[in-house]
Known about the structure:
The chain has 130 residues and is an alpha+beta fold. It contains three helices and three strands, in the order βαβααβ.
Amino acid sequence: MSNNKWGYNLYNSDNWQCEWFETKEEAIQAGRNEHEEYELDSETFQVGQLSKYVPPKIDLDTIIDDAVVQAYDDCGEVSESWLNIKYISKDVLHKFNEKLNHLFNEFLIEANEVPEFGRIINIETVGVDE
Length: 130
């Protein structure tokens, strides 16, 4: 599902269970049709756009920090000079940070865990009979 498609919410719920449409007008018409089909009592419903959740970027610096702490916990002072980020080139860090994030996105795809959820933005109340 692409970002910023329009949907409708007939039941004033946090979980919008609907089809998603390219335009607000299509979502309004579909909402009105479903409202009529189920003979609901309400006089209004909501339309809004889906802003899909984007997974966070994986931060290589944090992973390195965790590895350094674990090495110190396991081996003590002898590990203190290992993996000092001050002495690693910014280009190398950037290159591997990009690779790490690419790998994480590939994992989400292969694991069939690409987020299909998000938050609803641009919410408007629409009259059933307008």
